[in-house]
Write a structure and sequence with these properties.
Layout (H helix, E strand, L loop, with lengths): L1 E3 L2 E4 L9 E2 L10 H12 L3 E6 H4 L6 H10 L3 E5 L15 E6 L16 E7 L2 E2 L8 H10 L4 E6 L21 E5 L5 H9 L4 E3 L2 H4 L13
Parallel strand pairs: 1-4, 4-5, 5-6, 6-7, 7-9, 9-10, 10-11
Antiparallel strand pairs: 1-2, 2-3, 7-8
C-alpha cells in the first residue's frame, strides 16, 4: 500500500511523480482504511506493507493516516516511513513493524540493534540503491545481519506495478532469514517461483486488485 497525500496510489515502475490515486473495481475510493477493509474481507489479509511516499521523498509524513488505520482497522502494518535513523522509527508501537530501507537510512556508521525491524533492500534495474554512495550490496547485507535482522524485503522498484517478475533477480536468502519479494508479482506461478527461490512470501497489490490473484490461490502463510 503506497500512500501519498493521504491516499493510496498505484505505484508503477518507481516513477513516483507519475503515481495516481488507485482505482479498481474492488474499491470505491483510494482511502487507506477502505483499502485495508476491502483487502481484509476479500483476501483475509492480516499484515499490510505501507510505503509513506511523502516521508520517503522528504515531505510531510502521513502520520495521521497511519494513526487512523490503527484506530479504524485491526490489521498489523509494516511501515516504511523513510526513516533516516532507528530513533525515527516507531519501534514501540503496537501493531507496527518499522521497515528500514537502504534508500533512506543514514546510520551506517553505527550498528544499533535491528532485530525488530524489516530491512528493505532496494534495487532499480539491477542497481542497488543506498543512501551512502558506493556502498556495496554485500557490505549492506552484512551490516543488517550483524545487527540481528532476520526479515528482509527485496524491493525491485522498477518492477513495482509493472507486471514483470523475475525470480533470478532475487537476492538469495541465507538459512534462518525470511525474505519477501516486492515488485512485479503477478499470479500464483510467480508466488511459487519466489518460494522455490527460498522466499517466505511476497508483497502484492496490483495482482489482487486486478483479479489475477484470487482468495483461493492464496495460501494462509502468504
Amino acid at each position: 500500500m503506497d500512500i501519498m497525500g493521504g491516499q493510496v496510489v498505484r505505484a508503477a515502475g518507481g516513477v513516483r511523480a507519475e503515481y495516481k490515486p488507485i482505482s479498481s473495481p474492488l474499491l470505491s475510493s483510494p482511502d487507506p482504511a477502505h483499502f485495508v477493509h476491502v483487502i481484509q474481507q476479500r483476501f483475509n489479509a492480516a499484515v499490510f506493507y505501507i510505503a509513506d511516499l511523502d516521508a520517503i521523498m522528504g515531505r510531510k509524513p502521513n502520520l495521521k493516516v497511519i494513526d487512523a488505520l490503527l484506530k479504524q482497522t485491526n490489521a498489523r502494518f509494516w511501515v516504511d516511513g523513510g526513516y533516516r535513523r532507528l530513533a525515527d522509527a516507531p519501534t514501540e508501537r503496537e501493531r507496527i513493524v518499522p521497515v528500514i530501507a537502504t534508500e533512506t537510512y543514514m546510520e551506517w556508521n553505527r550498528a544499533p540493534e535491528l532485530s525488530g525491524v524489516v530491512a528493505s533492500i532496494d534495487t532499480n534495474h539491477r542497481r542497488f540503491i543506498c543512501s551512502r554512495a558506493g556502498m556495496p550490496l554485500k557490505m549492506t547485507l552484512d551490516y543488517f545481519r550483524q545487527a540481528g535482522t532476520k526479515d528482509f524485503i527485496h524491493m525491485r522498484l522498477d518492477a513495482v506495478g509493472a507486471g514483470y517478475f523475475d525470480p533470478f533477480r532475487l537476492i538469495p536468502p541465507r538459512p534462518g532469514e525470511r525474505w519477501y519479494a516486492a515488485g512485479g508479482v503477478r499470479d500464483e506461478a510467480d508466488l511459487s517461483a519466489a518460494t522455490e527461490a527460498g522466499y517466505t512470501g511476497a508483497l502484492v497489490s496490483t495482482a489482487l486488485l486486478s483479479g489475477k490473484l484470487t482468495p483461493q490461490e492464496l495460501a494462509p502463510d502468504r
